[in-house]
Amino acid sequence: MEAISPAELQPILDDIAHDMASATDRGEPAIYIPELGSVDPGQFGIALCLPGGETLQAGDATTPFSIQSISKVFTLAIALGRLGDSLWARVGREPSGLAFNSIVALEHNNGIPRNPFVNPGAIAVTDAILHGLQPRDVLAELLQFLRTAAEDDDIHIDKDVALSELAHAHRNIAMAEFMASHGNLQNPTALTIGTYCHQCAVDMTCVQLARAGRFLAGFANAPRLVSPSRVRRINALMLTCGHYDASGDFAYQVGLPGKSGVGGGILSIAPTRASIAVWSPGLNAQGNSKLGALAMERLAEATGWSVF
Ligand code: DON
């Protein structure tokens, strides 16, 4: 397939942003984290980076939002770099078919979470990185990873969001304790959950997130942060597990690896073609951005970028 030029892509993004701005059925922001519940659902942004170094954007693409579970992609990359394949003794690689915060799978699997993107899986990954370090060291490493990936130092943690989640983290704490009962937690629960809530509270814009995703798209000129074989495997997990119990639907409708967050963001990768970030705070029933998923469908249809 012929590569689509930036000049052809820009009107596609403009059209999508225009239609999403006037959509009436936008979903509801995540209210279980009070700070996120008050974000204006009327916003929509999209940005993409191309192999030639161009970044295109439309809508609210420079408004910071809480990346939430999208952080799990980056902590996974850090953990694999640090621990290698021994990480897989603590977390599986299978879709769960369950909500991101479901507890039941843990009991069926002796405290081993199904994959690194459901909450207990990401908590196990954070716990693995934390081992022997202080939370501030792990968070500094994550921020450094993101800033290097995006080539932008203006990426920070929103403390109010972190504390808001921490004050309502009963379910994540319960899952961490359950994992601890099976020997699958190495640090005190409070340290691991405190680190996890802060990692989820990183603020980024669509432009920053699309730029940070370039290392997963296999661009020659992107910062090289993990090996090509790991890039393939992280993309495989994003495709199969990145949208929780809507992962099959996202693969069917969009055909690209993607990772969502309850802040309403989605990072999606069209290998060798584009790193894409979309954001709209209203969520669907599975906790993924309603308009974000719709926008990705539109973009995949217009570009033919599906991996299938
Ligand atoms: O642990 C939580 O519930 C949130 N910090 C992250 C969940 C999330 O983003 C799920 N994504 N759609």
From TrEMBL:
<keyword id="KW-0378">Hydrolase</keyword>
<feature type="binding site">
    <location>
        <position position="262"/>
    </location>
    <ligand>
        <name>substrate</name>
    </ligand>
</feature>
<feature type="binding site">
    <location>
        <position position="244"/>
    </location>
    <ligand>
        <name>substrate</name>
    </ligand>
</feature>
<comment type="similarity">
    <text>Belongs to the glutaminase family.</text>
</comment>
<feature type="binding site">
    <location>
        <position position="69"/>
    </location>
    <ligand>
        <name>substrate</name>
    </ligand>
</feature>
<feature type="binding site">
    <location>
        <position position="165"/>
    </location>
    <ligand>
        <name>substrate</name>
    </ligand>
</feature>
<feature type="binding site">
    <location>
        <position position="172"/>
    </location>
    <ligand>
        <name>substrate</name>
    </ligand>
</feature>
<comment type="subunit">
    <text>Homotetramer.</text>
</comment>
<keyword id="KW-0007">Acetylation</keyword>
<dbReference type="InterPro" id="IPR012338">
    <property type="entry name" value="Beta-lactam/transpept-like"/>
</dbReference>
<dbReference type="GO" id="GO:0004359">
    <property type="term" value="F:glutaminase activity"/>
</dbReference>
<feature type="binding site">
    <location>
        <position position="119"/>
    </location>
    <ligand>
        <name>substrate</name>
    </ligand>
</feature>
<protein>
    <recommendedName>
        <fullName>Glutaminase</fullName>
        <ecNumber>3.5.1.2</ecNumber>
    </recommendedName>
</protein>
<dbReference type="InterPro" id="IPR015868">
    <property type="entry name" value="Glutaminase"/>
</dbReference>
<feature type="binding site">
    <location>
        <position position="196"/>
    </location>
    <ligand>
        <name>substrate</name>
    </ligand>
</feature>
<dbReference type="Pfam" id="PF04960">
    <property type="entry name" value="Glutaminase"/>
</dbReference>
